[in-house]
Structure formats: structure tokens, C-alpha cells
Write a structure and sequence with these properties.
GO terms for molecular function: DNA-binding transcription factor activity. One of its GO terms (biological process) is response to stress. InterPro entries: ArsR-like_HTH, HTH_MarR-typ, MarR/SlyA-like, WH-like_DNA-bd_sf, WH_DNA-bd_sf. Residues 1-110 form the HTH marR-type domain. The chain is mostly helical and 110 residues long. The chain has one domain: Arc Repressor Mutant, subunit A (Orthogonal Bundle). It is 55% helix and 9% strand. The protein contains five helices and two strands, in the order H-H-H-H-E-E-H. The chain has helices at residues 2-19, 23-34, 41-48, 52-64, 86-94, and strands spanning 68-72, 80-84. A two-stranded antiparallel sheet has the order 1-2. It is elongated, with a radius of gyration of 15 Å.
Length: 110
């Protein structure tokens, strides 16, 4: 089990070094790219299976990195919607897992 955690840690470190984002941030970016409609933090939390508080933290970090923007709902001004910026779209396009060395122990998972 320790080998799996070590392999996952190495993979995550290599991924973050290559793309300057974490795996959780990448999941949110991919979810936003695949969305066909307005996306709320609640929707992203459910889709990525991250806790609402962790999703909120990831959204704040992605916004600070200039990868996403938030906008107010036109019908309900209390509702926040999230969208990829041009830089965010570019970063999602760069996410090609074959560029990152996946440890042999983790290959069956991919």
C-alpha cells in the first residue's frame, strides 16, 4: 500500500511541475471545459466529488492563477457561475497525460 501512495505522490508531483496545477485543479478545469451550460460551485463539487469547501478553495486558486472567472447570474444575482478564461482553455488543452511518466504501479488505473 505504501508503494501505491509513493507512486501517486510522485505522479502528482510530476504533474504539478509540468502544468503548474494540481490534479484537483485539473479536474475542475476539465469539468468546466466539458460543461455545456452555466456551472456553479455546487455542480463542480458534485461532478468532481470534492467537498464543497475544497471546491471553493480550488476555485479561488484557479481564479488567482487567471484560469477561470466567475460571473453573477443574470436572473439570480446571488448565484455565481464559473467559466474558463482563454488561458484556462489553453491549459486544459495542454493536459495530455502521456507527457507525464505514469509509474508502472499506477498504469492499471489509467
Amino acid at each position: 500500500m505504501r508503494d501505491v501512495f509513493k507512486a501517486m505522490g510522485n505522479f502528482e508531483t510530476a504533474f504539478e511541475k509540468m502544468y503548474q496545477i494540481t490534479l484537483n485543479e485539473a479536474m475542475i478545469l476539465c469539468a468546466l471545459k466539458e460543461a455545456s451550460d452555466k456551472v456553479t460551485a455546487t455542480n463542480l463539487s458534485k461532478q468532481t466529488e470534492l467537498s464543497p469547501s475544497h471546491t471553493s478553495k480550488m476555485l479561488r486558486i484557479l481564479e488567482e492563477k487567471g484560469l477561470i472567472v466567475r460571473s453573477l447570474g443574470s436572473e439570480d444575482r446571488r448565484q455565481m457561475y464559473f467559466h474558463l478564461t482563454q488561458l484556462g482553455k489553453q491549459r486544459v488543452t495542454e493536459l495530455e497525460l502521456d507527457k507525464v511518466e505514469i509509474p508502472d504501479l499506477l498504469k492499471p488505473l489509467f
